[in-house]
Amino acid sequence: MLGLDLGTGIITIINLIVLVIVLRLLLFKPVNNFLEQRRQKVHDDLDNAQRDREEAQRLLEEHRQLVADNKGDAAKIIDNAVRQADVRKEEIIAQAGQDAAAVLQRAKVEIAQEQAKVLQELRADISGFSVAIAEKTLARTLTPQDQQAFFNAVLEEMDSYAN
Amino acid sequence: MGSLDEVLEGAKTVFTIFGVDITESVVNTWIVMAVLVILALVFSRNLKLYPDKRQNIVEIIVDGLTGLVTSTMGAKNRNFTPFIGTVFLLIAFSNILGIFGLRSPTADFSVTLAYGIVTFFCIHFFALKAKGWSYIKGFGQPFIFLLPINIIGEVAKPFSLGMRLYGNLLGGSVIMAMISGAIALFVPAVASIYFDLFSGFLQSFIFIMLTMVFITIAKDDED
Which chain A residue's Cα is nearest to B20? Predict the structure, then answer.
């Protein structure tokens, strides 16, 4: 029952060595290589995913920073525009005031000139009328001295009315 | 499974080549080897990134054996996986051969001792390769007069491994033959689940665990 057979033992050892070599080539090596490749691929994919996530996070931060900067710039631009508009408004108001004052001044000068001119014409007309009325009233022709005296009297009268 | 007499009689000679008797054990080992090679060919071809059921099975077996070797012997001894895996598959499939009515090759001491001798040479070859002359000197430690005892302990290892496997398998075969002789229906099938399947896998697992431990201790342990 416990008999040892040398031939069986030797053949068994050869069998085992042959089977180790065959299964190493047909089973263990290809399957282990394949599993290692897959492990490496999963590892690489995870690394890539991590890198992509970090890149996405970085881009998001940049984007946020950009938006924040743009918001600051926009506020600055609006502030500048408001300030410039205020300055411009003040300038326009000041200019308008100056223009109005100039127009008023010009109008006053023109009114004074017109007034003087009208007074001058009125004075001439009145002196003529006065002489004619006086001639008719006195039925004679006044001498130049009379006319001058009369004219001066009328002018004095008119000046008193004008004042 | 044969009768109790057939089991106790031992492996019969099937034929002779160049004066060497080819016993049942050798022929049945060849059958197991052929089955393993065919299964390896079928299961390991067209490996895909997304595995199907066939590929899942082979991945579980190979990855499981690789994990077992790595966890027991360390990552640096991962290249022992083909040897340990082959020994496991060969012994496990040999052990469960009884289910198919064939005599298990591992119920022959010549076969189990041969496995033990292969393990013995592996232990000392890799230990010598790793440690060199200091490994030989280690047999004289801690005292030189322990040298004979240490040598006897080392020589006993293949016998211990072979006897354990042979005894368990022969014992299982004897019990199965006795049960089959006593009760022909149903009971032998249930008993076969334990003695052929469970015990068969358990014994092959024990064999490779001891092999891995012996190799690792001899090769990697600091003196």
Answer: A7
pLDDT tops 70 at residue A163: no
- Structural domain includes residue A139: yes
Residues B173-184 pLDDT 10s: 888 888 888 887
Q: What pairing do the DSSP bridges indicate for beta strands B20-23 and B13-17?
A: antiparallel
Residue A2 lies in a domain: no
Q: How far apart are CA B211 and CA B125, in angstroms?
A: 13
Residues of B in contact with A3 (CB under 8 A): 10, 109-110
Q: How far is CA A101 from CA A18, A83, A108, A111, B138, in A?
A: 120, 27, 10, 15, 122
Chain A residues within 8 A (CB-CB) of chain B? 1-13, 15-20, 22-24, 26-32, 34-35, 38, 41
ipTM of the complex: 0.90
Domain housing A85: 7-162
Q: Assign residue B13 a region (left: φ > 0; alpha: ψ between -120 and 50; beta: otherwise).
A: beta
Q: Say how many domains are in chain A.
A: 1
SS3 B223: coil
- Identify residue A118 by its one-letter amino acid code: V
Residue B25 near residue B108, CB atoms below 8 Å: yes
Cβ atoms within 10 Å, residue B90: 25
User: Which structural domain range is residue B199 located in?
Assistant: 4-220
Q: What is the total count of domains within chain B? A: 1
Is A42 a domain residue? Answer: yes
Q: How far apart are CA A60 and CA A66, in angstroms?
A: 10
Q: What would you report as the CA-atom Rg of chain B, rounded to the nearest whole angstrom?
A: 20
User: Are the C-beta atoms of B10 and A1 separated by less than 8 Å?
Assistant: yes
Tell the burial category of B72 from Cβ atoms under 10 Å away from its Cβ (0-12, 13-18, 19+): middle
pLDDT at A5: 82
Whether residue A1 is contained in a domain is answered as no
Whether the CB-CB separation of B32 and B102 falls below 8 Å is answered with no
